């Protein structure tokens, strides 16, 4: 079977994908959602089409991990290299996600020898990445709790929440104090005896 190449224009909500053969003939142009269902469908399609090389503008992230886990060879191209290459393929200005997928596909097809193929992560690296994502989620949740605590402690001055939110180390204690205070109020808002 002839070599096939893919270009993926990465985005936070969806990814535009273009697959071409070794002559540059477009075989597929689709958009996939950035969720588990979409990423799985994208990887299955690339494997089923026997794509030899996938070009994308980022070296990491969930999409790149899924591509590598599916056994695909991935080229991570710097966005500046892609931006510089756009002029090779267009007459007028303007940028679109579909066009960027085309440019990435063409770079994989014609210039792949100039770029390094990503190596799949080891199991230890995957574990560290999973822990890092979990930590980021916890920090984001803690920040929300700190802001909520500040609003509970000072309900009449919402502007002070951003400027005077308690330190993250104090957040659990502040939240407990606020919950105790709230639990001592009657339905009318007056404190018990």
Structural notes for this entry:
The chain is 49% helix and 15% strand. The chain has helices at residues 36-48, 62-69, 79-89, 97-111, 123-153, 160-163, 171-183; strands at residues 4-9, 14-21, 26-33, 53-56, 74-76. The longest helix has 31 residues, at 123-153. The protein has seven helices and five strands; from the N terminus they run βββαβαβααααα. Residues 182-186 and 188-193 have low confidence and may be disordered. It is α/β, with parallel strands linked by helices and 193 residues long. Strand 1 and strand 2 (14-21) form a beta hairpin. Helix 5 packs across helix 7. The chain has a five-stranded mixed sheet with strand order 3-2-1-4-5. The chain folds into two domains: 4-114, ATPase, nucleotide binding domain (Nucleotidyltransferase, domain 5, 2-Layer Sandwich); 123-183.
Describe the secondary structure blueprint for this structure:
Elements: E1 4-9, E2 14-21, E3 26-33, H1 36-48, E4 53-56, H2 62-69, E5 74-76, H3 79-89, H4 97-111, H5 123-153, H6 160-163, H7 171-183
Parallel strand pairs: 1-4, 4-5
Antiparallel strand pairs: 1-2, 2-3
What's a concise summary of this model?
The protein has 193 residues and is of the alpha/beta class. Helices cover 49% and strands 15% of the residues.
- Total discrete domains: 2
β-strand amount = 15-25%
| Biggest β-sheet strands, sense, barrel | 5 strands, mixed
Indicate the percent of residues in helices. 40-55%
Q: What is the number of helical segments per DSSP (H or I, 4+ residues)?
A: 7
Neighbour order of strands in the largest sheet:
3-2-1-4-5
Spell out the helices and strands N to C. EEEHEHEHHHHH
Which word captures the global form?
elongated
**Overall CATH architecture of the largest domain:** 2-Layer Sandwich
């Amino acid at each position: 079977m002839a070599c096939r190449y893919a270009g993926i224009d990465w985005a936070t909500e969806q990814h535009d994908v273009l697959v071409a053969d070794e002559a540059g003939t477009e075989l597929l142009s689709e958009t996939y959602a950035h969720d588990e269902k979409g990423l799985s469908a994208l990887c299955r399609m690339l494997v089923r089409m026997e794509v030899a090389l996938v070009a994308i503008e980022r070296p990491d992230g969930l999409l790149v991990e899924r591509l590598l886990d599916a056994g695909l060879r991935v080229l991570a191209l710097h966005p500046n290299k892609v931006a510089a290459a756009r002029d090779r393929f267009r007459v007028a200005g303007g940028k679109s996600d579909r066009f960027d997928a085309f440019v990435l596909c063409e770079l994989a097809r014609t210039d792949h020898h100039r770029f390094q193929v990503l190596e799949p992560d080891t199991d230890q690296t995957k574990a560290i990445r999973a822990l890092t994502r979990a930590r980021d989620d916890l920090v984001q949740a803690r920040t929300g709790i700190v802001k909520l605590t500040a609003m509970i402690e000072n309900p009449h001055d919402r502007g002070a929440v951003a400027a005077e939110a308690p330190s993250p180390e104090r957040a659990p204690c502040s939240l407990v104090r606020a919950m105790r205070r709230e639990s001592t109020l009657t339905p009318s808002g007056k404190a018990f005896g």
